[in-house]
Amino acid sequence: MTLAGCRKELQTFLQQKSKECKAIVMPDFFLDRLISLDWDTAKFSELVAEVSKRKGGSIDGISQTDQRGGNAINVASALAHLGIKVTPIICTSEFGMQQIKYHFQNTPIDLSHIKTSGNASITTALEFRNEDGKTNVMLRDLGSLATFGPANIDESDYELFENADYVCLFNWAGTVSFGTELAQAVFERAKRSGRSKTYYDTADPTPKNKEVPALMNKVLKTDKVDILSVNENEAIIYASMLDFNLEEKKEHLGFAESALEAARVIANHLSARIDLHTTAFSATLKGKREVVVPAFKVKALRATGAGDAWCAGNILGDHNGLSDECRLLLANAVSAYYLQDVDGQHPSKEKLSVFLETQA
């Protein structure tokens, strides 16, 4: 299908009523502070060093924003704006719960399964300018997320898994102690009914690099994962475990091309459908089938959360049976809308339709 045909199909879909969909998202919510810097890392380091030499002081004029953070809760927001019924099962503190209620005061979402007996997860994200636009460095206090595992899930949560259309798990690295065990327990129960699709986006596995082989063998290589969502870095990390020749291939490829080659490797070794999202394009791969759709070119006003928005569009398109090309175009559009929105809001289907009309 041509890109023009995809756009037409997508516009028709956005103007129609979607199939009802129930999604569970787990397990993270972060209190985020976003610090936007007009310098690259070298200049910022120089300025910090100058302040340190004079025994402390201020660097004024720094744009800062407190916002909702965490893969699961960001996906929940994007899904809810697209009309999907969402139930987050996440851990936070009582203060974190009040923040969630504030952020979702005008958004229909089921907050009854949120766990509030622990410590909040907190991130300070530094956004730097570089030659390619923006990049972010996240300083994290994981709070109770670090020890979140199967013991934190009760029977009422498990019952939700069996009745949901999608059970979505994020941020494996953040669940430091029991991330792999959590994935095993959640996806096994989700598959018990035969109805739920399992959606896994581990986020960057690097902080738990030594445990990646266990994740690969106990979760990713099983038939419990229907859709594995990865970005460039994640694809390359997982593929490197499956094809030791990938490093040699990377020497002759650019970063995005290396990511696509990595996704091919993963698709050849795992039963899950592999959905890759990059800054230049997105792709879906299942066995030998491969579809690639270019990303929208927009002025990015932020560097965090694009992948979460992309996942929401991907899930909506998948549930409604859109063609692979149209599903990827939808996911790209949701992500692009979020990146260029002044207030960092996720789009409704109506707003997304208007956005598409403005894109060449």
Describe this structure in words.
The protein has 360 residues and is an alpha/beta fold. The protein has helices at 3-14, 41-53, 71-81, 94-103, 155-163, 179-192, 212-220, 232-242, 246-250, 255-269, 306-319, 324-340, 349-358; strands at residues 22-26, 30-36, 63-69, 85-88, 121-130, 133-141, 166-170, 197-201, 227-230, 273-277, 281-286, 289-294. The strands form two sheets. An eight-stranded mixed sheet has the order 4-1-7-8-9-10-11-12, with helices on both faces. Helix 6 links the parallel strand 7 and strand 8. Helix 3 packs across helix 11 (306-319) and helix 5 (155-163) crosses helix 6 (179-192).
Main attributes of the structure:
360 residues; alpha/beta; eight-stranded mixed beta sheet; four-stranded mixed beta sheet; 13 helices; 12 strands; globular
Produce the secondary structure layout:
Elements: H1 3-14, E1 22-26, E2 30-36, H2 41-53, E3 63-69, H3 71-81, E4 85-88, H4 94-103, E5 121-130, E6 133-141, H5 155-163, E7 166-170, H6 179-192, E8 197-201, H7 212-220, E9 227-230, H8 232-242, H9 246-250, H10 255-269, E10 273-277, E11 281-286, E12 289-294, H11 306-319, H12 324-340, H13 349-358
Parallel strand pairs: 1-4, 1-7, 2-5, 7-8, 8-9, 9-10
Antiparallel strand pairs: 2-3, 5-6, 10-11, 11-12
Helix pairs in contact: 1-12, 1-13, 3-11, 5-6, 6-7, 8-10, 11-12
